[in-house]
Design a protein that fits this description.
The protein has 481 residues and is mainly alpha-helical. Helices cover 85% and strands 0% of the residues. The longest helix has 53 residues, at 4-56.
Length: 481
């Protein structure tokens, strides 16, 4: 089993690659396909992701915990794996049938039926990817190398085959192809660790947590995927195009921190099982330090530079995405703090009920906010609805973790880092107003300014140990120290 630092590095590369490679092709496809066709693809993809949530339910969390428990015993591991796989097969087949039925009767789905049918392949191959097996085994090196190779192939294929605005079906089919190829490779490679069986395998013990954590995932989607789907129904594909363009880069940033929390889940689960509460507290504080130095400077930078970023990512015609991006950027910290509390503490502690209650509150807040705000403010309304939902979830998670374990969050440290980043944002805003040269010059200047600020503040003035240790570790790995 790899060290925690190694797993964090691999998982960071892995998770960010899920967004970076699509981001590489995004400036190209936004210009080739146009805002309307991008909006159609994103609308359908979010609908499909909604069906994937129903097919997977709580599989990722349940399977991860079970694989961690039995990974040292191949016989037991194979039994558990087979039971989980069969349960997931039943749910996936059921969902695909429902998907085909709804595609034939819902007008908005019928209009895009070919995209919906292609998307059904994503539902199937997402299940067959069995990513939860490798995460439970902490085999992040394999996952990372495999995904990067497939993603590189995806980028090449998009540039080769997507040439005009009518190629949006090809563009979406290529994104599904990535899932298919990953699934095939994973299924073949899984034979190194488990054997498949349909006899004497456990299913019943997994059903209850499968549905409880599944409801949590579904409710969470009420303020993520649901935002896009509802926006598409109420306001049309253009507003979907603005909203998804505004949140795309944010998703990349969040993915980097999600990679870290994903690695920490099996490690925290093992530590709690062994009763090593001091180690749990130590890792929690380290997670908070990473979040603070990670989130606030990036929020400040992208709120100020949103106009330039949107122009680089999407080109002309996407100006309506700028306020959405500025509004939702602070969610990097809010969602990051949620993940630390929920994924690193509540789930390893087995507090599934508390996680479910929090997701219900977030879903209710999200749905009500969408219904009230989207008809009035469209994509900006969706942005506000997302903020409301996440604040509900964070508030409930913080309340429940204080009831469950003796953990302290250093709010003073958070406030200090926030104020430093606010000062940086004001200086950067003033600098951009004074220079106001070309897009390329202003962007390069802002990046240099950001790098200097970050280095001087966190490495020289504050001497953040978590950053210094990480940078020294990376220098050693590449042989520079």
């Amino acid at each position: 089993m790899n060290s925690l630092k190694t797993n964090v590095v691999y998982s960071s590369i892995l998770t960010v690659s899920n967004y970076i490679f699509p981001l590489i092709v995004f400036p190209y496809v936004t210009r080739v396909l146009g805002v309307s066709n991008i909006g159609i693809c994103n609308f359908v993809d979010n609908v499909i992701d909604f069906f994937i949530l129903f097919s997977m339910m709580g599989m990722n969390s349940v399977a991860l915990r079970e694989i961690v428990k039995h990974r040292d015993n191949k016989t037991e591991l194979s039994k558990v794996f087979s039971g989980l796989f069969l349960l997931n097969l039943i749910s996936t087949v059921t969902v695909i049938i429902v998907l085909f039925v709804l595609t034939s009767i819902v007008p908005e789905f019928q209009q895009n039926k070919y995209l919906m049918y292609v998307g059904s392949g994503k539902v199937l191959f997402n299940f067959l990817t069995i990513e939860w097996l490798y995460r439970g085994l902490e085999d992040f090196k394999y996952i990372t190398y495999r995904k990067i190779v497939v993603k590189i192939l995806y980028v090449v294929l998009v540039f080769v085959f997507v040439k005009k605005s009518d190629d949006y079906l090809i563009y979406y089919a290529l994104s599904v192809f990535v899932f298919a190829l990953n699934a095939i490779i994973n299924l073949i490679y899984s034979r190194h660790f488990v054997s498949y069986s349909i006899r004497d395998i456990p299913i019943a013990p997994f059903i209850k947590p499968f549905f409880i954590l599944g409801v949590y995932a579904l409710l969470t989607s009420m303020y993520t995927s649901f935002n896009v789907v509802y926006l598409g129904f109420v306001s049309g594909e253009n507003e979907v195009g603005y909203y998804t363009t505004a949140t795309r880069l944010q998703n990349v940033i969040l993915a980097l921190f999600t990679a870290f929390t994903g690695v920490m889940l099996p490690r925290m689960t093992a530590l709690i099982k062994e009763g090593k509460h001091d180690d749990v507290d130590r890792l929690f504080k380290k997670s908070m330090d990473i979040l603070i130095v990670f989130a606030f400077p990036l929020i400040s930078y992208f709120v100020v530079m949103a106009p330039q970023v949107i122009r680089i990512l999407a080109g002309e015609g996407y100006e309506a995405a700028i306020p959405c991006m500025q509004l939702t950027m602070p969610l990097i910290f809010v969602i990051g703090l949620e993940q630390v509390i929920i994924i690193q503490l509540l789930l390893p502690l087995g507090k599934d009920k508390y996680v479910l209650i929090g997701s219900i509150l977030g879903a209710v807040g999200g749905v009500l906010s969408n219904v009230i705000l989207v008809p009035l403010y469209q994509s900006i309304g969706s942005s506000f609805a997302w903020i409301v939902s996440e604040l509900f979830v964070l508030g409930s998670a913080y309340f429940f973790i204080k009831k469950s374990i003796d953990i302290t969050i250093d709010w003073r440290k958070i406030l200090v880092k926030f104020l430093y980043s606010l000062i940086f944002a004001l200086i950067l805003l003033f600098t951009m107003k004074v220079t106001n040269f070309s897009l390329a010059f202003d962007t390069i200047l802002s990046l240099v300014f950001f790098a200097l600020f970050y280095y001087i503040l966190f490495f020289i003035i504050l001497k953040e140990s978590v950053l210094i240790d990480f940078s020294q570790s990376m220098l050693k790995k590449v042989g520079l120290k």
